[in-house]
Structures are given as C-alpha cells and as structure tokens.
C-alpha cells in the first residue's frame, strides 16, 4: 500500500471516481485507488482537501494526518468506527487504578531505557577499535542506563499515581545520559531540544518524531484504546498520554537511527530560516518511512517496525482487558 505525502503550495487533494488524486496548480502529480492508499500525510499549510476525499478516506479507513513545518502533529482525521471497542476502553481506564497501570508504566519506562542503551551500543560497536576513548565514554553511560532499568524493575506500587513520579525521574535521568552519548558521536549536535528547536539536528529529530507520533496514534486507536488515557505521562486536556507512553519504545529504534544514519552518510540537509527546507523535510520523511519498513525480530517472528507498533498497541489492549503479559519492544543493536 502507498503512503501519500502532501508537501508544497498550490496542492489539492481530491476524489475522482474511486481514486485519490493530488494536483499541483491543476496538474495531476499523483493518482491511486483508495484501497491502495495506507495514509495521507499533509505537511503544508498551502494545500486544500475536498470533502469528498475526506469522506472516502474515512470510509476506507485511511487516516489523514497533519504536521506543521517543524514536524509537530496538530490534527488527525480518522473514522470513528476504528476505535469502537467499549470493553477495551473500560478496562484501560480501570487499569489506571490498580497494579496493571503500574506494570504498564514500568514496561514503557524499561522499553525506553533499554532502547536508549541499545542505540548507544550500536553507535559504540563501530568505534571499539578506532576510537577507544569514545567507546569507553559511551559504555559508561550505557552501564548507568542499564542500572536505571534494574531500578525501575524493582519499583512497587498499588496504582499508576504512586509510581509515576519515580518512573518519570528514571526516564529523565536515562534521557540525559543517552543524549550525552549521542552528542559525543553526532557532529553539530549540542544537546536535545524539543518543540521550538531552531538547529538542524533537533529539527530533524522533531520532524521524525511527528511522523512517528501519527503511526502510534493510529495503532492505539485501531486497537480500541483511548489515546488520552495513559499511565506515565500526566493527564491534561488535549494531551494524548497513552500515545506519548507507547511512543517511547520507538523513538530510538525508528527516528534516531534514521536521522543519525542519514547524517552519518552525508545526505545534503538544510534549513529555510528557522525550519527545515522542503527537500530536507521530504528526505527525512522518506528515511523514517524506510526505517518503519525495516523488518526486525519481535516475539520470535520478523515484522516490519511499523507492524510492531500495531502489535504493541494490541498487546496493551490484551493486557488491560484479558491479563495477557505485556512486554516492551526492544530493538537490536
């Protein structure tokens, strides 16, 4: 199936018979049957979308996803029928008040920490022979992150509220160690900055995370879960806490590997003022999509990383609803 990426000014998205049609200034630049479209990503404020196209996307289960120029997700249009599993949502909300919420919170945290450690191991393995000082620097941080994993595994509590602060503290300490390691091996990267970043590397990361966010949101919704009812990230109106919980398992193996791999192989990237220029946005989107299509081993089988996101979302649903053990996804190195 095809992912449609809408970029640039003067673009229109419409429906012609049973086909999705994208035009630029009246000229057709893309046309595909709706049944062969996986999703539509709009990363421009200069596009129009017809009501007929929105209706058909909803009917066919094709999500429409909207990103700002910086990669921040600001809207998603999906069919209301995709997440209509009442039993799962009731169980999800009740799990917040008992030990299930504790176990899920711990799993999300350990998944994030273990993937951070494994990404540093990936960066380190090519430096063991040629730059031992950098290798040792990275492994000192890896050891401390793995110690945080052991601390998280030992946390006990009766409900998510009792352990949330401890989990967030461990995640924050692990993130600081991880980005220290990344800064040592990534030229031009001084440290992590989230929304509002104006430097190239953080802008690339933020844009990639925006693409990943929509994948996780889609997976959570299709699994019948409420994206706003999480266990580690705090509840706040308009904040999709469960999406932010689950995305932590995938930031490093999907986006960080794609972005730093791209930078390490000399691809030309650039800024247009304080945002990524259009060719760079297209490039990073393509590299993240390539990474999502990479097949990895998970639970004894090989899956595309994008499918693993759906497997994990369904596993959250199975855990809260039926008690089936949840295990975080941990990428290889």
TrEMBL record:
UniProt protein name: CRISPR-associated endonuclease Cas1
Protein EC: 3.1.-.-
Pfam families in the record: Cas_Cas1
Cofactors named for this entry: Mg(2+); Mn(2+)
Family matches, as Gene3D superfamilies: CRISPR-associated endonuclease Cas1, C-terminal domain, CRISPR-associated endonuclease Cas1, N-terminal domain
Family as reported in the entry's similarity comment: Belongs to the CRISPR-associated endonuclease Cas1 family.
Keyword presence, Transcription: no
Keyword Metal-binding: yes
Gene giving rise to this polypeptide: cas1
Subunit structure as annotated in this protein's UniProt entry: Homodimer, forms a heterotetramer with a Cas2 homodimer.
GO molecular function per UniProt: DNA binding; endonuclease activity; hydrolase activity; metal ion binding
Gene Ontology biological process terms from the UniProt entry: defense response to virus; maintenance of CRISPR repeat elements
Alphabetized InterPro entries for the sequence: Cas1 (IPR050646), CRISPR-assoc_Cas1 (IPR002729), CRISPR-assoc_Cas1_C (IPR042206), CRISPR-assoc_Cas1_N (IPR042211)
Keywords carried by this UniProt record: Antiviral defense, DNA-binding, Endonuclease, Hydrolase, Magnesium, Manganese, Metal-binding, Nuclease
Role this protein plays: CRISPR (clustered regularly interspaced short palindromic repeat), is an adaptive immune system that provides protection against mobile genetic elements (viruses, transposable elements and conjugative plasmids). CRISPR clusters contain spacers, sequences complementary to antecedent mobile elements, and target invading nucleic acids. CRISPR clusters are transcribed and processed into CRISPR RNA (crRNA). Acts as a dsDNA endonuclease. Involved in the integration of spacer DNA into the CRISPR cassette.
Binding-site positions, Mn(2+): 171, 233, 248
Coiled-coil ranges (or none): none
């Amino acid at each position: 199936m095809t992912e449609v990426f809408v970029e640039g000014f003067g673009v229109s998205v419409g429906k012609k018979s049973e086909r999705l049609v994208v035009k630029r200034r009246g000229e057709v630049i893309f046309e595909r049957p709706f049944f062969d479209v996986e999703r539509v990503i709009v990363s421009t404020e200069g596009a129009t979308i017809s009501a007929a196209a929105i209706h058909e996307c909803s009917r066919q289960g094709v999500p429409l996803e909207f990103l700002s120029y910086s990669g921040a997700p600001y809207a998603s249009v999906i069919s209301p029928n995709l997440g209509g599993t009442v039993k799962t949502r009731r169980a999800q909300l009740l799990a917040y008040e008992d030990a299930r919420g504790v176990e899920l919170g711990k799993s999300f945290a350990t998944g994030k920490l273990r993937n951070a450690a494994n990404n540093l191991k990936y960066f380190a393995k090519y430096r063991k022979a040629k730059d031992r000082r950098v290798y040792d620097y990275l492994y000192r941080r890896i050891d401390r992150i793995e110690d945080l994993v052991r601390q998280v595994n030992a946390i006990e509590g009766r409900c998510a509220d009792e352990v949330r602060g401890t989990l967030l503290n461990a995640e924050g300490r692990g993130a600081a160690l991880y980005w220290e390691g990344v800064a040592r091996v990534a030229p031009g990267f001084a440290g992590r900055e989230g929304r509002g970043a104006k430097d190239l590397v953080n802008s690339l990361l933020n844009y990639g995370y925006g693409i990943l966010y929509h994948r996780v949101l889609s997976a959570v919704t299709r699994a019948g879960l409420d994206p706003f009812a999480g266990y580690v990230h705090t509840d706040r109106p308009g904040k999709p806490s469960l999406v932010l919980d689950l995305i932590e398992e995938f930031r490093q193996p999907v986006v960080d590997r794609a972005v730093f791999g791209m930078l390490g192989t000399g691809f030309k990237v650039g800024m247009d003022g304080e945002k990524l220029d259009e060719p760079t946005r297209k490039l990073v989107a393509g590299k993240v999509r390539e990474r999502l299509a990479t097949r990895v081993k998970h639970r004894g089988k090989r899956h595309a990383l994008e499918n693993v996101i759906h497997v994990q979302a369904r596993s959250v649903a199975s855990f809260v609803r039926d008690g089936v053990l949840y295990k975080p996804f941990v990428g290889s190195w």
